[in-house]
Design a protein that fits this description.
The complex is a heterodimer of chains A (357) and B (1017). Helix content of chain A is 67%, strand content 3%. Chain A is an all-alpha fold. Chain B is of the alpha+beta class and 1017 residues long. Chain B contains 20 helices and 32 strands. In chain B, helix 11 runs antiparallel to helix 12. The chains are: A mainly alpha (357), B alpha+beta (1017). At the A-B interface, strand 1, helix 4 and helix 5 of A face strand 26, helix 14, strand 29 and helix 18 of B. Strand 1 of chain A pairs antiparallel with strand 26 of chain B, so a sheet runs across the interface.
């Protein structure tokens, strides 16, 4: 006796969260059944393995049919074929677009192209995430990217509107899109200590302050591309390190203000010029795409690592950066205050976030 | 020119890409009704076209309005080649034809293609302007309401229940016409869909005409089926119960009627029951009467039933047993004659209803059924479907005579079905023989003035169990005892019926689904030889199914079956029998004896040991089941648990202790223990298997109950969470060494595994009950068995459930004591007008507890007819609280039940009767057979929901999947499936919303909510 056909269709579509997770994680039906058996469900419910097999198949089939709709979540809301309560719809969408930290760290900042897709095999082996799941996550990134890439308006809002994701997840996707678009390097060994959260935090600050959208909310690509004019202008900041008098003056103002307040005062005093040169040079170079990509590498190399090697506590870094940015205002002869604030305000936030072990 | 149909095409969405180059579609719409077609403009390059067309107007006869569906075709415009069809929508406009239902159909409909499935949606508005037409000779029957529900619909009152209506129409099946060889599968499928839609409309119209002739205004329990007879054609047939219904507009309307003088006269029928044996006759061996007939093409039937069937149209009134006739006298006789004549005017006194207004059902005789094997021949003249008519007439005649043999003048819970394999067709009909109260059957007699009295006067929920036949002249051997409830009348030892459990029946414990499953191999044969072989097998199958049911019932410790449905399916090389019913313990019937096993070779000691081991197992199972289903009959509980098979002596002692019954009873009861039905003789391995299979049925996991009736006895605090589902399984038998035993085992496993899967899938709903579990078996090919199950899972509140059961038991205990008292005062009470009203039947008790939420005073409720309705009748103004306005797609509930727990149905919008074909030539790509059928069933649900939503409804009740014919050809990568579903579209309002609404209304009388209510009134 073999089962040729075996289906269950409810007027309200049944969604088993556990099976959904297994499906999203890319397990085959037989693996999923094995995992479910191991979870002790048979003992709890008194079911047989055959029942479990049939149930799993059924759910997988449903998910497979739903997947097409999940690619465009508003369709899931308007379609008539599956009657699913709104809370369940939200859960389906949210889980479908959720991603693994390990995976996103591999892909973040890479071009979402066929080439990268080919590397998914390696990523799968490296992260232990099934290839199927990697593909889903990659395709999600790419799909969201394609849809919102050239859209007007706030990136987060666009994502939320077109994919019906939670605020939290929309922000994460905004970061992914932003990173993919600007191709920030995140994979270097020295950046390995950083989490996706760190990058997402920086992305949000940069979107808020450094993109076109920060100055004009009515342009295409406003949140995705950096404000070219702003990057152009950043050259002007070079004077802070190029003009020796200005540099000395800046140092003395900062040192005066911080004397006795830092546990690493002497190290700071010794390193001030290097650090300042590092930060200002990063700004000045951002005009080149190549250097934009290396932004995080540079920040870590030029600032995070030197401070870390001198064992600056985070509180000292904060005090220093605050003072360092603020004291520019008291430098006579420096005319780019606004520009400096736009640059340094964001950078300070990023650096504080990046500064950890 | 009695009608103008107006259609507006608003917009489309989610259309498929039809032009690969642009990834877009140039869509336009054709709107067709009858022979008239209109077109919209082409909306270029969009997947979400906004046509916003003018109103297309069709001027048509109302006859056409009833027959024809509105056909909407969405096409992709192509400049150079033929336009490509995207898909179609068929809209049945029947609901617009009677005033109380929907006034407009408006909404998003899935665009359906028989090859691709659903391809986007289209927004359509449909209206009908009907002109009054006084032509007496008209062929239309606009205005007759149709209900699938097999009880009086919730917001109506039955003035008169007229009786049986039936009709059938035949045609050639387009799939088998010569043209089918040259046209595309799509064209063929569409021709079929259209034809069946047309035939359904015609059938409905014709039935409507019959109803008008009977002066009714509605058909309740409308069941339409189609028979795919292959080469010989397509038959669409329907049966139903014609009624005159009154809309319950406001409770006040009844009050005057209650004071009318006819009350005096009318209440007498209800004293009938306490009267002993005025007209006794008897049921019990429920499946007694069957007839198997087979005939080459002209049929004759070979009666195999034992009794003095037909004839004796005169009631057996006077023939009661000696002890009878203490009173009642002339009046009763008169009444009986009245009933009799009321029913005899009808050709077939059949009722498709399974639940009845209180007092309608007086006695139940038992199940009557008839089957007949026919050879199909080509239907030569579709306008003269005489052969098919004659076949059914013959079967109905048999049913009628069986009922008569049981001393009954009517058949309730009546249904008909067919099973077709190649050119052989088994026609089956079954129902429950019953004695009815004439009150509802005659014109001009009663108005519903009795409701209030009625509820008081009903006997304590055992009347329907009392035998209607003559005790001394029983049509079959039965074992009668005095009713355990009232002690006044005789009852059989078991009762089988096809109806739902009457709401006033006293039940102990909970019920459960009981199934008998059976396969019989049959040699492949042609034509007549085949038909003969089948008719020879049928009696054996019936017998075995019956034995299995009886044994399983005893094993559960129960004594009655409700909702019994026996399906015999014919295949190329086998016959399958599947009987489903809900077992219960009726307090009025005696405690069932156990099952005793007897060996044939008594000298073998190891064998003896084995037997006794089995016996022990069976006894344990019975004891366990009694515990599981909470069967603790109040007085006899210790004895029952102590010894499942009471010795005859014990039993008689038992009886005597309960009541001072006469010697006669003891004698009768003595024979009880000797009865063969209780003894399973194990004489060969076959029998051994049978016993084993008895024990293999596993009870549902804890927290689950199941039944195939509307409501589960013993559970009544339903929450509002419901889940309707359809599950289909097909298994392939290994063709090697197929034996009856192996076949039985396979089939049994299939059903059991299916149930297990359901329990597992629905585990999140625990505690829950699967209600209206409906199994259908088909044999699509040689080695394939297909089982389709549709049911609804309803959660209930566990704590409350326990409480109510407790009160329930207390109640019955209390009743038992009152009964004894009553016994003494018996003659007095008979004459007295006011019977004590305290022994409420438990069902009613729960009814009240259920409706107490609705905050409607009990007094108001008492005057309403609908006893089964879980809610009261006030607050009518709020009926059209907008259903689910907030979400993008409104939720539409579907349920095979006639009600929605925790909600009140405020409006019936019309019948939904839909037929779909889906075919694929890329089976693998669509996920194989499972993927294909899963998607199709989901689409069917979606289309039903969309139609209901467009009518303004938010639920389908009495939903049924009447047919699911699946054929596959994996080698060709093809599959095809036909599905036919029906139900009643309704508007319901949550009881909680009702309360809110009523308070709101009280606060602010002229709010939009209120006006909204009046629009639809």
């Amino acid at each position: 006796m073999t089962s040729e056909l075996d289906i269950f269709v409810g007027n309200t579509t049944l969604i088993d969260e556990d099976v959904y997770r297994l499906w999203l994680d890319g397990y085959s039906v037989s693996d999923a059944v094995a995992l479910r058996v191991r979870s002790g469900i048979l003992e709890q419910t008194g079911a047989t393995a055959a029942v479990l097999q049939s149930d799993t198949m059924d759910h997988y089939r449903t998910f497979h049919m739903l997947e097409r709709l999940l690619h465009a979540p508003p369709k899931l809301l308007h379609q008539l074929i599956f009657q699913i309560p709104p809370s369940r719809q939200a859960l389906l969408i949210e889980r479908y677009y959720a991603f693994d930290e390990a995976f996103v760290r591999e892909v973040l900042g890479k071009k979402l192209s066929k080439g990268t897709k080919k590397d998914l095999d390696d990523i799968s082996t490296k992260t232990g995430i099934t290839l199927k799941s990697c593909r889903r996550q990659f395709d999600n990134f790419k799909r969201v990217f394609k849809v919102v890439e050239e859209m007007r308006g706030s990136l987060v809002d666009n994502i939320q509107q077109h994919f019906l994701l939670s605020d939290r997840l929309s922000r994460d996707y905004a970061a992914i899109v932003f990173f993919a678009n600007n191709r920030f390097e995140t994979g270097k060994k020295k950046l390995q200590y950083l989490s996706f959260g760190d990058f997402a935090f920086c992305a949000e600050l940069m979107i808020q302050n450094w993109t076109l959208g920060a100055v004009d909310s009515q342009v295409d690509d406003m949140d995705v591309d950096l404000d070219k004019e702003f990057l152009q202008d950043l050259k002007e900041l070079k004077v802070l390190v190029a003009d020796k008098d200005l540099l000395d003056l800046h140092k003395s103002v900062v040192c005066t203000a911080l004397r006795g307040k830092l546990s690493v005062f002497s190290e700071m005093e010794a390193n001030f010029k290097n650090l300042s040169r590092g930060l200002v040079n990063v700004a000045a170079k951002l005009i080149h795409n190549k250097d934009v990509r290396d932004l995080f590498v540079d920040l870590v190399e030029k600032f995070v690592e030197p401070c870390r090697s001198d064992h600056w506590p985070l509180s000292d870094v904060r005090l220093f950066l605050n003072q360092y940015s603020a004291s520019v205002h008291s430098l006579d002869g420096f005319r780019h205050q606004a520009l400096w604030d736009r640059y340094m305000g964001t950078l300070r936030g990023c650096l504080l976030r990046l500064y950890h072990d | 020119m009695p009608g103008k149909l107006k259609v507006k095409i608003v917009a489309g969405r989610h259309l498929p890409v039809m032009d690969r180059a642009s990834d877009l579609t140039d869509a336009f719409v054709e709107v067709k009704f009858g022979n008239t077609t209109f077109k919209t403009d082409v909306y270029l390059k969009s997947l979400n076209p906004q046509w916003n067309s003018e109103w297309f107007k069709f001027e048509v006869d109302d006859e056409d309005l009833q027959d024809e569906p509105l056909q909407i075709t969405v096409l992709d415009h192509d400049t150079y080649s033929a336009n490509d069809a995207i898909g179609k929508v068929y809209i049945d406009i029947d609901p617009l034809l009677y005033s109380e239902a929907a006034t407009v159909i408006s909404g998003w409909f899935p665009i359906y293609d028989t090859i691709h499935g659903i391809r986007g949606e289209i927004n359509v508005i449909v209206k009908v302007d009907l002109f009054n037409d006084l032509n007496r000779f008209r062929q239309s029957s606009c205005g007759v309401k149709f209900f699938c529900t097999t009880s009086i619909p919730k917001c109506y009152r039955a003035v008169i229940i007229h009786g049986f209506v039936e009709e059938l129409v035949v045609n050639e099946d387009p799939e088998y016409q010569w043209i089918d060889r040259i046209r595309t599968p799509r064209a063929s499928n569409e021709a079929r869909q259209r034809l069946i839609s047309l035939m359904s409309g015609e059938l409905q119209r014709k039935i409507g005409l019959k109803v008008l002739e009977m002066r009714g205004n509605a058909v309740v329990g409308y069941l339409q089926c189609f028979d795919l007879e292959g080469e010989s054609g397509l038959v669409v047939r329907a049966i139903g119960t014609a009624c005159t219904l009154d809309k319950l507009s406001s409770p006040a309307a009844f009050l005057p009627a209650c004071n009318s003088p006819c009350k005096e006269m009318k209440e007498i029928p209800f004293n009938e029951d306490p009267n002993p044996n005025t007209h006794s006759s008897g049921p019990s061996t429920p499946l007694k009467n069957q007839t198997y007939s087979f005939s080459p093409s002209k049929s004759y039937s070979r009666q195999s039933s034992s009794s003095d069937t037909d004839l004796s149209l005169t009631p057996k009134t006077g023939m009661g047993s000696g002890s009878a006739g203490k009173e009642g006298g002339p009046f009763k006789a008169l009444l009986r004659q009245q009933t009799q004549s009321a029913l005899e005017q009808r050709e077939f006194p059949f009722f498709t209803l399974t639940a009845f207004p209180p007092g309608f059902l007086v006695h139940v005789g038992g199940v009557v059924s008839a089957r007949s094997v026919k050879l199909l021949d080509r239907i030569h003249n579709p306008d003269e479907p005489e052969t098919r008519d004659a076949w059914w007439a013959e079967i109905r005649q048999e049913i009628k005579s069986h009922a008569k043999a049981l001393g009954c003048h009517a058949v309730v819970g009546y249904s008909e079905s067919t099973s077709i394999c190649e050119e052989v067709c088994i026609l089956s009909a079954s129902g429950t023989a019953a004695v009815l109260n004439p009150r509802f059957l005659q014109d001009g007699t009663v108005e519903g003035c009795l409701e209030q009295r009625l509820e008081e006067n009903l006997p304590v929920g055992c009347g329907f169990c009392h035998i209607p036949y003559d005790e001394l002249n029983m049509p079959f051997p039965a074992h009668l005892t005095y009713c355990y409830n009232c002690r006044k009348q005789k009852v059989p030892d078991v009762l089988f019926t096809t109806i739902d459990l009457p709401t006033d029946a006293t039940v102990i414990g909970k019920g459960c689904l009981i199934q008998a499953r059976l396969c019989r191999l049959k040699k492949k044969a042609q034509a007549e030889a085949n038909a003969t072989a089948i008719s020879n097998l049928l009696p054996f199958m019936e017998y075995e199914v019956h034995t299995q049911l009886m044994n399983k019932l005893k094993l559960k410790g129960m004594n009655a079956l409700f909702g019994l449905r026996i399906q015999i399916t014919v295949g190329e090389n086998m016959l399958m029998g599947l009987a489903s019913a809900t077992g219960v313990y009726l307090a009025a019937l005696p405690t069932p004896g156990g099952i005793q096993i007897a060996g044939k070779t008594p000298n073998d000691s190891s064998y003896e040991q084995h037997i006794s081991h089995m016996q022990k197992k069976i006894n344990d199972t019975i004891a366990k089941n009694k515990e599981l289903y909470e069967i603790n009959p109040p007085e006899t509980s210790e004895e029952v648990i102590g010894s499942p098979i009471p010795e005859p002596r014990q039993r008689s002692r038992l009886l005597r202790s309960q009541s001072e019954s006469s010697d006669e009873v003891i004698e009768l009861d003595l024979s009880h223990g000797k009865k063969d039905a209780f003894v399973l003789e194990i004489d060969d391995t076959d029998a051994m298997e049978d016993v084993h299979s008895l024990l293999t049925d596993v009870p549902p996991p804890s927290g689950f109950y199941s039944c195939n009736t509307e409501i589960m006895p013993g559970i009544n605090n339903w929450t509002s969470e419901i889940q309707m589902f359809t599950s289909v399984r097909v298994i392939r038998l290994s063709s090697l060494n197929l034996t009856n035993q192996a076949l039985n085992k396979n089939f049994n496993d299939l059903c059991e595994n299916l149930l297990k899967s359901l329990y597992f899938k629905l585990r999140s709903m625990i505690p829950c009950c699967l209600c209206h579990v409906n199994f259908t078996v088909s044999l699509p090919e040689d080695e394939l068995i297909q089982v389709t199950v549709t049911a609804v899972a309803i959660t209930f509140d566990k704590n409350q459930a326990l409480q109510t059961t407790k009160t329930h038991i207390e109640k019955s205990l209390q009743r038992a004591s009152t009964d004894n008292e009553e016994l003494l005062q018996f003659p007095l009470e008979l004459c007295s007008d006011s019977l004590p009203s305290h022994p409420f039947p438990p069902a009613k008790e729960h009814l009240e507890s259920a409706s107490s939420n609705s905050g409607i005073p009990a007094a108001q409720r008492a005057v309403t007819v609908e006893k089964a309705s879980p809610m009261g009748e006030g607050n009518f103004r709020n009926r059209s609280a907008p259903p689910c306005a907030n979400s993008t797609v409104g939720v539409v509930k579907m349920t095979p039940l006639s009600f929605i727990p925790g909600a009140k149905i405020t409006k019936y919008l019309g019948i939904i009767n839909m037929f779909f074909i889906r075919e694929t030539t890329s089976l693998r790509e669509e996920g194989g057979v499972s993927g294909f059928l899963h998607a199709f069933i989901a689409e069917v649900f979606a289309m039903v929901r969309a139609h209901v939503a467009a009518l303004g409804g938010n639920a389908v009740v009495s939903y049924i999947m009447k047919q699911c014919v699946f054929m596959e050809n994996p080698n060709k990568n093809q599959a095809q499936c036909l599905i036919n579903v029906s139900g009643d579209a309704v508007v319901f309002v949550r009881e909680s919303d009702l309360e809110v609404a009523s308070t709101q209304q009280a606060a602010a009388t002229c709010q939009p909510l209120c006006t909204g209510g009046e629009v639809t009134t």
